[in-house]
């Protein structure tokens, strides 16, 4: 089993590329070999590749947005830094309409999930209690 560091746990230290680079170095220094990228600042995929390689890290999974609007671009960005598991941190919206909001979410994201699979990647979903009606 490979243990990784979820960068959301150090979110305050990942909000600029300078801080993110320093945090990746520190995570590697304490012995982690892989990370989950979530809650960080925006970054260029090539920059992330460089940072991961420089620190001997891989990216196992992310929490990312934009999959329903621009699935192929998100898959390609992940491919650049070697991550084949695209994670959703939660369902978009606040689910105030209960099951109707879930149905709308499903209709929007099933096509994206199929595109992710067709591209040879995986879609992961991290649920919260509010999403378990």
Task: Please tell me about this protein's structure.
The structure is a single chain. The chain has 133 residues and is of the alpha/beta class. The chain has one domain (5-131): Alpha-Beta Barrel (TIM Barrel), CATH 3.20.20. It is built from four helices and five strands. Strands 1-2-3-4-5 form a five-stranded parallel beta sheet, covered by helices on one side. Helix 3 runs parallel beside helix 4 (99-118). The longest helix is centred in the last third of the chain and has 20 residues, at 99-118. The protein is globular, with a radius of gyration of 16 Å. 24% of the residues are buried.
Number of domains: 1
Order of helices and strands: EHEHEHEHE
Range of strand content:
15-25%
The CATH superfamily title:
Divalent-metal-dependent TIM barrel enzymes
Kindly report the spatial arrangement of strands forming the biggest sheet: 1-2-3-4-5
Q: Using the coordinates above, name the CATH class.
A: Alpha Beta
Average of pLDDT:
90
- Main beta-sheet annotation: 5 strands, parallel
Our measurement of the CA-to-CA distance between the termini, rounded to an integer number of angstroms, reads 32 Å
| Count of distinct strands | 5
Shape, principal axes of CA atoms? globular
Broad structural category:
alpha/beta
* CATH architecture tag: Alpha-Beta Barrel
Percent range of helical residues: 40-55%
Gyration radius (Cα, Å) is 16 Å
Which consecutive residue ranges, at least 5 long each, have pLDDT under 50?
none
Please name the CATH topology: TIM Barrel
Q: What is the oligomer described by this structure? A: single chain
Number of helical stretches of at least 4 residues: 4
């Amino acid at each position: 089993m490979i243990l990784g560091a979820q960068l959301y746990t150090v979110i305050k230290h990942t909000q600029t590329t300078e801080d993110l680079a320093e945090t990746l170095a520190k995570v590697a220094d304490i012995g982690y070999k892989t990370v989950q990228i979530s809650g960080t600042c925006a970054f260029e995929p090539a920059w992330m590749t460089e940072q991961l390689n420089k620190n001997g890290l891989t990216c196992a999974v992310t929490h990312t947005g934009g999959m329903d609007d621009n699935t192929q671009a998100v898959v390609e960005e992940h491919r650049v830094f070697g991550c084949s598991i695209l994670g959703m941190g939660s369902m978009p919206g606040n689910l105030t309409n209960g099951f109707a909001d879930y149905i709308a979410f499903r209709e929007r994201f099933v096509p994206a999930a199929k595109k992710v699979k067709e591209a040879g990647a995986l879609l992961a979903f991290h649920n919260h209690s509010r999403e378990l009606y």
